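Narrative progress, year one. The postdoctoral researcher (J.K.) led the effort to move from monomer predictions toward full complexes, under supervision of the PI. The following entry was the first complex the group processed end to end, covering 527 residues in total.
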Amino acid sequence: MPKTSRRRLLKALFFALPALAIFRHVRPTRHDDIVEVDGWILKRSDLA
Amino acid sequence: MIFQDMAAYRAASHTPRVAIIGGGVAGITIARKLDARGIPCVLFEAGGEDITEESQDFYRGSTVGDQYFDLDVTRLRYLGGSSNHWAGWCRVLDAYDFESRSYIPHSGWPIRRADIEPFLDETRAILGLREFKATYPLTDNFGRMDLIKSDAVRFGTQFRGELEASRNVAVVLNTTVLELAGDGKAVTGAKLFSAGAPAGDFTAPYFVVATGGLENSRLLLWSNAQSNGAVVPNAKALGRYWMEHPMYWAGNAFITNQDALEFDDEGECFMIPTPPAMAERGVANFHIQLETMPYHGTKQLIAEMACYAPRFTEWVSSAIGMHLQCSARVHIDWEQPPVESNHIALSATERDAAGVPRMELHWKKGDLDRRTLVEGMRMFGEDIALKDIGRLHISDWVLNGEDYPSDMELAGNHHMGGTRMGTDPATSVVDANSRVHGMENLYVAGSSVFATAGQCTPTTTITALSLRLGDHLGRTVAS
């Protein structure tokens, strides 16, 4: 696997971690593609 | 000329046109400015040339409200004042800091930034600064600001030789102005305390109070109490609208695009919101300070894990003998809005060694402080996610509305307000020239005249305002 793909995968895994937790609080933001999950401010695509 | 006490000064038969009370950044800057115009002035410094417990004891006081620093620790009482423990971080208030904002009551100065800009070259020369770089856009709502981490100038040390050699400036050490006397139109004299004993009265055509962002209010409040309001005739705002820069570690972040941020040599980066972004969210000014961790490879991975699993990471960290933390700490420092109830009062029970009531600081953060903290962090988190610069986690205590932590920075040791500048005597103490409303010969210098606090460290602006006041006084006295 190319180094950049590995980094991208690792990054995606990191950003997805909050989604694996039991959500205590999910809050919409002013931007359609941004969401606040337990204090994490993430792109919706991070959770896909 | 430098004298160790008032007795030595009186023997010199010096006749000043201006009496400057306080030998810190503001006082020394004004004295040097007057010296350059050949105007004789005396500068009373309450302390000596080094810190002593006896001198610092005059600064003891109490705080009512939010947790704050000990009042005899947050400032220094010897030649050079609090520049003796200043960190050296420099930036000038931005143009919009001087403007009125509808969502912040009592915001707006009677001057604009353009009024101090003619003095910025001289300010940079005094503080040893390069040119400030313009803020450049980072996201839609944030810019990266230029904050200069300078070699802090200790004013007492830096300018001692020049002051000693001056034939116009007389520095009188170990000499406190206990109170000013007035007739409701002008200051008529000052009562002195020198080398531990009363030292009689003193008068000069002009007086400048430059004892610091806390002490200016105490001196004028006590003077007014002793003179039945004849020193500050319009005293409704005296001691009030006091401000700080609250600052807290409020979250952690992964940074995925370090190049976009341009961290400095210490791995830090400072961002400020745009005025429209602040207005849209109804928040005060603030800055975000990103503090990166100097890790790479596996250590960086473990450090970043601390964002998700702090206890697990602590265990791993101890197993490899390192204390590793999240990849970037996110600090927020904000402009505390001017609120009348945040004020300096005189203690009814405690007095210092010269018999002057000690200070009682009433200080509490309010709803707009909390809103700026929470919404400021959200604004930043949303913007860095949108631009794929990183991802932010806001600390639980911030989002849950818990009490402010007591084990963090708390504030910047920036003492602002109390004798704020304005046009309305009901909400301000000095006018656009720093002259006390209704008084012909009484001026106030230093950060106590700040009408609003902005988000940046105050020393650079204090220096620029002091140069402006020195210039004004020089022309006034000469005429």
